[in-house]
Every structure is written in structure tokens, then in C-alpha cells.
Amino acid sequence: MRSPALKPARERVLDAAHHLMSTVGLARTTTKEIAREAGCSEAALYKHFASKEELFISVLAERLPQLAPLLHGLAAEPGRHTLAENLTEIARQAALFYEQSFPIAASLYAETQLRRRHDDAMREVGKGPHLPIEGLAAYLRAEQAAGRVSADADPFAAASLLIGACAQRAFAYDAAPGGRPPVDDFARRLVRTLLSGISAADDRT
């Protein structure tokens, strides 16, 4: 395994940004601190990333669990595995993503101007928190066309419920007795409950 000192500068910067954003929050992380932890100059950092906003997007895309490839693959090939298996894996990956991204992004909501800059940056590159819901809804529509989701189900509403629950797990349970529900058990229970309302009768396993 390559030691940190031998990693390319871009990887060191991403590692440092991920660590600092996760521990002190996005708002309090500066490019100067990231460069110092990465062992490079700010000028070197800016050779790879145009702004802190771009760094944040890159951390989300390259250092956290990814939903988009999973959702796109399933939507392109509905019927692969059971509906329950697919949705459980989606829920598991979504729960892990929000668990890891919430400490980074939470400080955005405390500073309006910072949130606005990051929203603008996300729109410019075609990213945003709405995309997992839209991706899951597309997958559910594909399964609906294949007959594995009830014809009268609302894919967008179902996707919003599943993704919203995964995001809420990251936000709501730190102060709860027992802490955050274990991700695998949480995903299974969430999907079992959701499927009781949207699954075709013969595909609830």
C-alpha cells in the first residue's frame, strides 16, 4: 500500500479535505488548513481544485459511498435480483452515505451565504441532494414497467420515503438511547415496511 507521503498531491488534498471537513465541518475548514495537512502549498491545491466548493463536491464523489452507479445500473436492468434485495442494498448505501456526509455538510445550514455558494456550485456540475431520489424513482418506474412494483404505486413518493429515512437516520439518532440503528438491520426493516405498500404481491420476498 502506498504511504501517504508518496500519494499524488491531488489524493493527499482530497484525504486532508475529507478528514478536516468530517471533523471540524465544512464552514470551518479552509483551503490553507487543507493544504497544510496535505503537505503542500495552497498554490498546489489550486492546481487541482478551483475552490473549496469544488473540493467539497470531489470529496462527496470520491471519498463517500456512491449511490448513482448502483441506481443507474439497476434502472438499466430491472428484474436483476429480487426487489427486496435491490432496495435493501440501495438503503444500506444511502444510509452509509448520509452517515458519512452529514458531519461534513451540516455546517452549511448555519451559514446562508455558504449554503448558497455550494448550491450554485452543485448546480453548475449537475449535482445535488435531489439526485438520489430521482435515481431511485427511475429504478422503481423501471420495476413498475416490469410488473414488480404495483401499477398504482407512486415511485417518486416511495423514493422520497426511503431516501428521506436514510438521511434522517444520520440526523436524528445520535442523542437517542442506544444511538444510531445498525445500518444492515435498519435497511432490511425499512425495505420490508416499504414493500408492504408498493410491491407486487408475488415479489415481497
Spatial separation of the terminal alpha carbons: 41 Å
Order of helices and strands, N to C?
HHHHHHHHHH
Mean pLDDT: 86
Q: Quick one: overall form?
A: elongated
The percent range for strand residues is under 5%
Number of strands: 0
Helix run count = 10
| Model regions low in confidence, pLDDT < 50 over at least 5 residues | none
InterPro entries: Homeodomain-like_sf, HTH-type_TetR-like_transc_reg, HTH_TetR, Tet_transcr_reg_TetR-rel_C_sf
Protein name: TetR/AcrR family transcriptional regulator
Keywords: DNA-binding, Transcription, Transcription regulation
Pfam family, one: TetR_N
Q: What does it look like?
A:
The protein has ten helices and no strands. The chain has helices at 9-24, 31-38, 42-48, 52-63, 68-76, 83-105, 112-124, 131-145, 155-172, 183-198. The mean pLDDT is 86.
Which features would summarize this protein structure in a list?
HTH-type_TetR-like_transc_reg; 10 helices; single chain; 205 residues; DNA-binding; elongated; mainly alpha
Which helices and strands appear, and what pairs or packs with what?
Layout: H1 9-24, H2 31-38, H3 42-48, H4 52-63, H5 68-76, H6 83-105, H7 112-124, H8 131-145, H9 155-172, H10 183-198
Helix pairs in contact: 1-2, 1-4, 1-6, 5-8, 6-9, 6-10, 8-9, 9-10
In brief:
This protein has 205 residues and is mainly alpha-helical. It contains ten helices and no strands.
